[in-house]
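Fold it.
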Amino acid sequence: MQRGLHVLQSMLWIATIKASGGFMKIFLDDFGIFLGRKRNRFTVKKEGEVKEIVADDVDSIICCSSGVAFSASALDLAVRNNIQVVFARYSGWPYAVLMPAAMTGSVRARREQFTAYNDERGFILAKKFVAGKLANQANLLKLMAKNRRQTDLMLSGRLYEAGKAIDEIYAKVDEEQGFKIDDKRQDLMNLEAEAARFYWDAIRQVLPAELGFTGRITRGARDPFNAMLNFGYQTILFPEVWKAIGYAGLDFYAGYLHADRPGKPSLVLDLIEEFRQQVVDRTLIGLVTKNVLKFNEIVVAETEDGRVLNREVVKTLLASFQERLDTEVMFDGQRGPIKSFIHHQARRVARFLLREADYTPFTLGW
């Protein structure tokens, strides 16, 4: 693994991903695992083997198998140490997230969150989320174009032109005027979809042909690149944004860009848009174009739990996404890891709703 990040592994069925800040993510993905507690340590057991991990060193626990058992004492230890426990399926979004019942943030911010749906704040936030996504798409394409000038001038030109095309759509988003988001949502979504066509067609040209990537597939993707995109968005990025929204004192389900639907965490999906390209897309493109991940090693035959990705590939993805989250960048006049800016942006949403600050979407240059 690269500097500052490594996978500590004593058993095939558990990966502990240690970030540069010293915290670990415990990833459990096999039948027969039992997560217990021994004083201030988590104990992970299977078939007579035991691994102990100090709770103070753990950032989150991710469970991707229905065959994992937990003791109530272990879950209590997680809650007491503000350790997020994520229950996810390989085939979809996390179906449960365990967090402390006592959260931070202002109740007033949540009241304003609901009120803002029917005034200009809801429209402004939705517009900013789309603008942030498009700016990051354009900048990532232009960065890849710059990096390929010496090796493939024609491809470099096509990537740059796609980035410029998205810039033009960004300008249209910026010009949108409105008040209530219900009246403008479809216009924003149409512009977002127009940019997506340029973006994913450009990404297709960068990827190795053997991956068979023809375009973005969300639900039920079985091709290697879409399966890895979904894993990154759903299992890694979604819980991080969920946690940030919760600690900012906001409601997960009351969003603006994404329409209301029972069980749909719309505000989490809204805020994710700013981070998809810089956390997940950029990481995966690097892994496959640098041949770190090889086509014939990525996927396995689908199992009962919907598994598509090889376990060793999953461990590489976990380590690489964590490293990207820990990468320090400059944004909004501050320097810090990308992960910290996820929480920064959630707090910024709350302050905007309280009319205490403007909202600037998270973007990185090229």
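Residues 1-13 have pLDDT under 50 and may be disordered.
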